[in-house]
Design goal:
- The chain is mainly β.
- It has one helix at 237-240, and strands at residues 14-16, 23-25, 38-40, 45-48, 62-64, 69-73, 86-88, 93-96, 110-112, 117-121, 134-136, 141-144, 157-159, 164-167, 181-183, 188-192, 205-207, 212-215, 227-229, 249-250, 261-266, 271-274, 282-288, 291-292, 300-303, 312-320, 328-329, 333-338, 353-354, 366-372, 376-384, 389-398, 401-407, 420-428, 431-439.
- It has three domains: 4-250, Ribonuclease Inhibitor (Leucine-rich repeat, LRR (right-handed beta-alpha superhelix), Alpha-Beta Horseshoe), CATH 3.80.10; 261-338, Immunoglobulin-like (Sandwich); 353-439, Sandwich (Immunoglobulin-like), CATH 2.60.40.4070.
- The chain contains one helix and 35 strands.
- It has an eleven-stranded parallel sheet with strand order 1-3-5-7-9-11-13-15-17-19-20, with no helix packed on it.
Length: 441
């Protein structure tokens, strides 16, 4: 246990009490050691908060308090340690946000706050630490995106794994050409990993596992890599083929591709399934209810004149002759078949109705049908999956009757719409109905 009399050693330059069984709190009197340049108290059982008086140690160069049981928030007074180059507070029980005052420590070479309970965002002020070489923040509860300003540092070790960071990786990471350790695993990152990381020509370890990345560059030209882990993302074979020669390359499993769909089509219509997966050596096999469909070994599969027996769950299994240990599956399309519910007669409809479009899924056009029992103002709209209006098909007063309207897959300005889920909405007087459909190219 520390004695408060430690403050009497005002001329002390170096204090190392690491790897002992010290317990209790660090006394406030430690702030009287104004000549101290090295304070090492790691690997003990110290508890309580970090005293704010440590901020008085203006000559401190090394501050190691890791592997204790320290708790509470970081005192903002740590930002007064203007000469510190190594700050290691890892493996404690520290909480709260990282105070902005830390980003004023412009002489920092190493900042290690990993294995604590820190939360909040990584401040753009990290760009102030232009000499920073090692940033270890793994195993906390940090969130938000990586600021662009991280590219203003000199990092060779960026360890952010096991937090809840999200967003995309800024292109500025390409500036970190001395990178040796690049670990972003087990977060919520998405998008493409910037191609600029190919400039990490000394990279040894790289992990982006357990995120939602959808693109990854070719790192095969970096001869120093000993471990590359990209598993549990949304990568496809085009991302993996160039990297298969890298030692200790872990890439399986990956997320399924495409979107899940429930669709109902009428007998006698045509139905087409399609999957888009990058790669130069892909092998496709369509499945119905888990059983291979004979001859259905292309990226698309069509059924002409569907019958009731064609109902079921359709998926595509995709393998690759170069990336041999990975199998991708498309998300299933659940198909229900029904006989047409509308009977064409000479009589007028007795009620308002909006029917399922046909065909569905479709490419490039589909027919929308509805019934009007009386004369009303009619509007028929197409919306995308985000609720944005894409096309107005009908906007007029119409007489009673049954109507068929063709949508050619184009927006109001005539441009071709992208593949995906769409909604069509009928407004006829007081009648309101919305249904969904899928455009597949």
């Amino acid at each position: 246990m520390f004695s408060s009399e430690i403050g009497n050693l005002g001329s002390l330059l170096h204090l190392s009490l690491s790897n002992n069984q010290l317990n209790g709190e660090i006394p406030d009197e430690i702030g009287a050691l104004i000549s101290l340049n090295n304070l090492q108290l790691q690997d003990n059982n110290l508890t309580g908060p970090i005293p704010k008086e440590i901020g008085n140690l203006s000559n401190l160069i090394i501050l190691w308090l890791f592997s204790n049981q320290l708790s509470g928030t970081l005192p903002v007074e740590l930002g007064r340690l203007s000469n510190v180059t190594q700050l290691n507070l890892s493996s404690n029980q520290l909480t709260g946000t990282i105070p902005d005052s830390l980003w004023r420590l412009v002489n920092l070479l190493e900042l290690q706050l990993n294995n604590n309970l820190f939360e909040g965002n990584l401040s753009p002020q990290i760009g102030n630490l232009t000499q920073l070489r090692r940033l270890q923040l793994q195993f906390n509860q940090l969130s938000g995106s990586i600021p662009v300003e991280i590219g203003d540092t000199m990092l060779f070790d960026l360890s952010l794994q096991n937090n809840t960071f999200d967003g995309t990786i800024p292109q500025s990471v390409a500036n970190l050409t001395d990178m040796l350790m690049f670990d972003l695993s087990s977060n919520n990152f998405s998008g493409d990993v910037p191609t600029g990381i190919t400039a990490f020509n000394q990279l040894q370890f790289c992990s982006i596992a357990n995120n939602a990345f959808s693109g990854f560059p070719d790192l095969s030209g970096i001869t120093t890599i000993t471990d590359l882990n990209v598993q549990n993302n949304r990568l496809t074979f085009e991302d993996l083929e160039p990297n298969v020669g890298i030692n200790n390359f872990t890439y399986t499993p990956q997320d399924n591709v495409g979107i899940a769909v429930d669709t109902t089509v009428a007998t006698g219509t045509n139905l087409t399934f399609s999957v888009s997966v990058g790669g130069s050596s892909n092998v496709y096999q369509w499945l119905k209810d888990g059983i291979e469909v004979s001859g259905a070994n292309q990226s698309s599969y069509s059924i002409n004149n569907v019958t009731l027996s064609d109902s079921g769950l359709y998926q595509c299994r995709i393998t690759n002759t170069i990336v041999s240990d990975l199998t991708l599956y498309s998300r299933g399309t659940a198909v229900s078949i029904e006989t047409p519910s509308r009977v064409t007669t000479n009589s007028l409809p007795s009620h308002f109705a909006l029917y399922q479009n046909y065909p569905n899924p479709f490419n490039p056009e589909t027919t929308l049908s509805y019934d009007l029992p009386s004369q009303v103002d009619v509007q028929l709209f197409i919306f995308d999956a985000l609720g944005r209006k894409v096309r107005t098909l009908v906007a007029e007063k119409q007489n009673p009757g049954s109507y068929n309207v063709l949508w050619d897959g184009r927006s109001d300005d005539g441009s071709v719409t992208a593949s995906g889920l769409y909604f069509y909405r009928l407004v006829a007087g007081e009648f309101r109905r919305t249904a969904k459909m899928l455009l597949i190219k």
